[in-house]
Design a protein that fits this description.
about 250 residues; single chain; alpha+beta
Protein backbone atom coordinates (compact mmCIF):
# COMPACT_ATOMS: atom_id res chain seq x y z
CA UNK A 1 0.00 0.00 0.00
CA UNK A 2 1.41 3.40 -0.96
CA UNK A 3 2.61 5.48 1.95
CA UNK A 4 0.03 8.24 1.27
CA UNK A 5 -2.85 5.75 1.33
CA UNK A 6 -1.54 4.22 4.56
CA UNK A 7 -1.43 7.64 6.21
CA UNK A 8 -4.97 8.46 5.02
CA UNK A 9 -6.26 5.13 6.34
CA UNK A 10 -4.55 5.70 9.68
CA UNK A 11 -5.95 9.23 9.95
CA UNK A 12 -9.44 7.97 9.05
CA UNK A 13 -9.22 5.18 11.63
CA UNK A 14 -8.09 7.60 14.34
CA UNK A 15 -10.85 10.03 13.41
CA UNK A 16 -13.53 7.34 13.63
CA UNK A 17 -12.16 6.05 16.91
CA UNK A 18 -11.91 9.58 18.30
CA UNK A 19 -15.47 10.31 17.23
CA UNK A 20 -16.79 7.19 18.94
CA UNK A 21 -14.92 8.01 22.15
CA UNK A 22 -16.00 11.66 22.06
CA UNK A 23 -19.61 10.69 21.43
CA UNK A 24 -19.58 8.26 24.32
CA UNK A 25 -18.08 10.84 26.65
CA UNK A 26 -20.53 13.52 25.56
CA UNK A 27 -23.42 11.13 26.02
CA UNK A 28 -22.27 10.34 29.55
CA UNK A 29 -21.78 13.96 30.53
CA UNK A 30 -25.23 15.19 31.56
CA UNK A 31 -26.37 18.67 30.69
CA UNK A 32 -28.92 18.22 33.47
CA UNK A 33 -30.46 15.39 35.42
CA UNK A 34 -33.32 14.92 37.85
CA UNK A 35 -34.16 12.06 40.17
CA UNK A 36 -37.39 11.98 42.15
CA UNK A 37 -38.08 9.50 44.95
CA UNK A 38 -41.51 8.70 46.36
CA UNK A 39 -42.68 5.96 48.69
CA UNK A 40 -45.98 4.29 49.43
CA UNK A 41 -47.49 5.71 52.61
CA UNK A 42 -49.30 2.41 53.17
CA UNK A 43 -46.49 -0.12 52.79
CA UNK A 44 -43.22 1.79 52.35
CA UNK A 45 -42.44 0.56 48.81
CA UNK A 46 -40.10 2.83 46.85
CA UNK A 47 -40.72 4.49 43.49
CA UNK A 48 -38.00 6.38 41.66
CA UNK A 49 -38.05 8.31 38.40
CA UNK A 50 -34.97 9.75 36.76
CA UNK A 51 -34.37 11.76 33.65
CA UNK A 52 -30.99 12.65 32.21
CA UNK A 53 -30.36 14.89 29.25
CA UNK A 54 -26.80 14.53 27.98
CA UNK A 55 -25.49 16.40 24.98
CA UNK A 56 -26.68 13.56 22.77
CA UNK A 57 -30.17 12.24 23.44
CA UNK A 58 -32.38 11.90 26.50
CA UNK A 59 -32.65 9.01 28.95
CA UNK A 60 -35.55 8.24 31.25
CA UNK A 61 -35.86 5.46 33.81
CA UNK A 62 -38.52 4.43 36.28
CA UNK A 63 -38.42 1.74 38.95
CA UNK A 64 -40.52 0.45 41.83
CA UNK A 65 -39.10 -1.78 44.51
CA UNK A 66 -40.29 -3.30 47.77
CA UNK A 67 -37.78 -2.75 50.55
CA UNK A 68 -37.65 -4.71 53.77
CA UNK A 69 -40.38 -2.56 55.33
CA UNK A 70 -42.78 -3.30 52.48
CA UNK A 71 -42.01 -7.00 52.86
CA UNK A 72 -42.77 -6.72 56.58
CA UNK A 73 -46.07 -4.92 56.03
CA UNK A 74 -47.10 -6.83 52.92
CA UNK A 75 -48.84 -9.82 54.55
CA UNK A 76 -50.87 -7.49 56.81
CA UNK A 77 -51.90 -5.02 54.11
CA UNK A 78 -52.40 -7.45 51.26
CA UNK A 79 -53.07 -6.33 47.70
CA UNK A 80 -53.50 -2.57 47.51
CA UNK A 81 -53.10 0.39 45.27
CA UNK A 82 -49.98 2.27 46.27
CA UNK A 83 -50.60 5.65 47.89
CA UNK A 84 -47.46 7.45 46.77
CA UNK A 85 -46.04 10.30 48.77
CA UNK A 86 -45.12 13.58 47.13
CA UNK A 87 -41.95 12.82 45.19
CA UNK A 88 -38.80 14.47 46.55
CA UNK A 89 -35.86 15.52 44.42
CA UNK A 90 -32.85 13.46 45.45
CA UNK A 91 -29.29 13.02 44.18
CA UNK A 92 -28.33 13.02 41.39
CA UNK A 93 -30.33 16.15 40.57
CA UNK A 94 -28.46 18.95 38.85
CA UNK A 95 -29.07 21.81 38.71
CA UNK A 96 -31.29 22.11 41.80
CA UNK A 97 -34.89 22.85 40.82
CA UNK A 98 -36.30 26.30 41.35
CA UNK A 99 -39.21 25.94 43.77
CA UNK A 100 -41.69 28.33 45.30
CA UNK A 101 -41.83 28.66 49.08
CA UNK A 102 -44.63 26.12 49.46
CA UNK A 103 -43.00 23.60 47.13
CA UNK A 104 -39.61 24.13 48.79
CA UNK A 105 -41.05 23.29 52.20
CA UNK A 106 -42.75 20.18 50.83
CA UNK A 107 -39.43 19.20 49.26
CA UNK A 108 -37.40 19.40 52.50
CA UNK A 109 -40.08 17.55 54.48
CA UNK A 110 -40.44 14.73 51.95
CA UNK A 111 -36.70 14.47 51.35
CA UNK A 112 -36.14 14.11 55.09
CA UNK A 113 -38.79 11.39 55.27
CA UNK A 114 -37.15 9.53 52.35
CA UNK A 115 -33.83 9.61 54.22
CA UNK A 116 -35.54 8.39 57.40
CA UNK A 117 -37.10 5.49 55.53
CA UNK A 118 -33.71 4.51 54.11
CA UNK A 119 -32.13 4.73 57.58
CA UNK A 120 -34.92 2.60 59.01
CA UNK A 121 -34.44 -0.10 56.40
CA UNK A 122 -30.70 -0.08 57.06
CA UNK A 123 -31.23 -0.69 60.80
CA UNK A 124 -31.61 -4.39 61.68
CA UNK A 125 -32.41 -3.42 65.28
CA UNK A 126 -35.28 -1.09 64.33
CA UNK A 127 -36.70 -3.62 61.86
CA UNK A 128 -36.48 -6.34 64.53
CA UNK A 129 -38.51 -4.19 66.93
CA UNK A 130 -41.18 -3.54 64.30
CA UNK A 131 -41.24 -7.24 63.39
CA UNK A 132 -41.78 -8.12 67.05
CA UNK A 133 -44.52 -5.48 67.25
CA UNK A 134 -46.22 -7.02 64.20
CA UNK A 135 -46.15 -10.42 65.85
CA UNK A 136 -47.63 -9.02 69.04
CA UNK A 137 -50.44 -6.86 67.64
CA UNK A 138 -50.55 -6.58 63.87
CA UNK A 139 -53.27 -3.88 63.51
CA UNK A 140 -51.59 -1.61 66.08
CA UNK A 141 -48.17 -2.16 64.53
CA UNK A 142 -49.47 -1.32 61.05
CA UNK A 143 -51.02 1.92 62.33
CA UNK A 144 -47.77 2.82 64.11
CA UNK A 145 -45.58 2.18 61.05
CA UNK A 146 -47.94 4.08 58.76
CA UNK A 147 -47.73 7.03 61.14
CA UNK A 148 -43.95 6.90 60.74
CA UNK A 149 -44.50 6.96 56.97
CA UNK A 150 -46.86 9.94 57.08
CA UNK A 151 -44.75 13.00 56.27
CA UNK A 152 -47.58 15.25 57.47
CA UNK A 153 -47.63 13.63 60.94
CA UNK A 154 -44.07 14.79 61.76
CA UNK A 155 -43.67 11.56 63.70
CA UNK A 156 -39.91 10.91 63.69
CA UNK A 157 -38.13 7.62 63.20
CA UNK A 158 -36.83 7.86 66.78
CA UNK A 159 -40.39 7.22 67.99
CA UNK A 160 -39.61 3.51 67.57
CA UNK A 161 -37.94 3.97 70.96
CA UNK A 162 -41.43 4.03 72.47
CA UNK A 163 -41.58 0.32 71.63
CA UNK A 164 -37.93 -0.51 72.31
CA UNK A 165 -38.42 -1.40 75.98
CA UNK A 166 -37.58 -5.01 76.82
CA UNK A 167 -38.31 -4.42 80.53
CA UNK A 168 -41.96 -3.56 79.83
CA UNK A 169 -44.81 -5.70 78.57
CA UNK A 170 -46.22 -5.15 75.13
CA UNK A 171 -49.49 -3.94 76.60
CA UNK A 172 -47.55 -1.28 78.49
CA UNK A 173 -45.65 -0.31 75.36
CA UNK A 174 -48.83 0.09 73.32
CA UNK A 175 -50.34 2.15 76.14
CA UNK A 176 -47.29 4.42 76.01
CA UNK A 177 -47.61 4.81 72.22
CA UNK A 178 -51.30 5.69 72.49
CA UNK A 179 -50.59 8.20 75.25
CA UNK A 180 -47.78 9.81 73.29
CA UNK A 181 -49.87 10.12 70.13
CA UNK A 182 -52.60 11.70 72.22
CA UNK A 183 -50.21 14.24 73.74
CA UNK A 184 -48.27 15.10 70.57
CA UNK A 185 -49.80 17.60 68.18
CA UNK A 186 -48.51 19.72 65.32
CA UNK A 187 -49.48 23.03 63.78
CA UNK A 188 -48.61 23.05 60.10
CA UNK A 189 -48.64 25.89 57.58
CA UNK A 190 -47.54 25.95 53.95
CA UNK A 191 -43.97 26.83 54.98
CA UNK A 192 -43.47 25.56 58.55
CA UNK A 193 -44.46 23.04 61.17
CA UNK A 194 -44.30 23.21 64.95
CA UNK A 195 -45.05 20.26 67.20
CA UNK A 196 -45.79 20.30 70.92
CA UNK A 197 -46.23 17.90 73.80
CA UNK A 198 -49.00 18.45 76.31
CA UNK A 199 -47.73 18.14 79.88
CA UNK A 200 -50.65 18.85 82.16
CA UNK A 201 -51.80 22.36 81.26
CA UNK A 202 -48.49 23.19 79.55
CA UNK A 203 -47.50 22.76 75.93
CA UNK A 204 -43.81 22.10 75.42
CA UNK A 205 -42.37 22.87 71.99
CA UNK A 206 -40.38 19.86 70.80
CA UNK A 207 -40.06 20.30 67.03
CA UNK A 208 -39.88 23.27 64.68
CA UNK A 209 -39.23 22.79 60.98
CA UNK A 210 -38.95 25.40 58.27
CA UNK A 211 -37.60 25.27 54.76
CA UNK A 212 -34.09 26.14 55.94
CA UNK A 213 -33.85 24.69 59.46
CA UNK A 214 -35.11 22.11 61.91
CA UNK A 215 -34.97 22.36 65.72
CA UNK A 216 -35.87 19.32 67.80
CA UNK A 217 -36.33 18.97 71.52
CA UNK A 218 -34.99 16.30 73.82
CA UNK A 219 -37.69 13.64 73.86
CA UNK A 220 -36.21 10.63 75.63
CA UNK A 221 -37.95 8.10 73.42
CA UNK A 222 -36.77 5.01 75.28
CA UNK A 223 -38.00 6.28 78.67
CA UNK A 224 -40.94 8.58 78.05
CA UNK A 225 -44.12 7.63 79.90
CA UNK A 226 -47.42 9.40 80.40
CA UNK A 227 -48.23 11.08 83.69
CA UNK A 228 -48.93 8.59 86.47
CA UNK A 229 -46.98 5.72 84.92
CA UNK A 230 -43.66 4.59 86.36
CA UNK A 231 -40.83 5.12 83.85
CA UNK A 232 -38.63 2.17 82.87
CA UNK A 233 -35.15 1.80 84.40
CA UNK A 234 -32.68 4.41 83.19
CA UNK A 235 -35.01 7.42 83.12
CA UNK A 236 -33.61 10.44 84.92
CA UNK A 237 -37.06 11.73 85.82
CA UNK A 238 -40.70 11.13 84.90
CA UNK A 239 -40.59 14.17 82.60
CA UNK A 240 -38.07 13.04 80.01
CA UNK A 241 -38.57 15.57 77.23
CA UNK A 242 -37.54 19.18 76.96
CA UNK A 243 -38.73 22.27 75.18
CA UNK A 244 -36.82 23.63 72.24
CA UNK A 245 -34.97 26.84 72.99
CA UNK A 246 -35.76 29.23 70.16
CA UNK A 247 -33.73 32.35 69.44
CA UNK A 248 -33.80 34.97 66.70
Amino acid sequence: MPRANLIRALVLTLAVFGGVVAGALLNRWPAWSTTRHAYCTLCGAHHEESERTPVLGRHRAESTRAGILAKLLGPAIGEHGHAWSTAAYVAPTNPPPKLGSREAFTQVVTEAKVRELELLEDSPHAIAILDEAMRNDRPRAVRFIQKLLDAQAYFPLEAIGLLDRPSQTWEERWHIVDAFVGAYHCDVTEVSASCRMRAGSTDLLVLVRTTTSVHSGGVDWAHWVPSGMKPPPGASSPQTYAAVTMSD
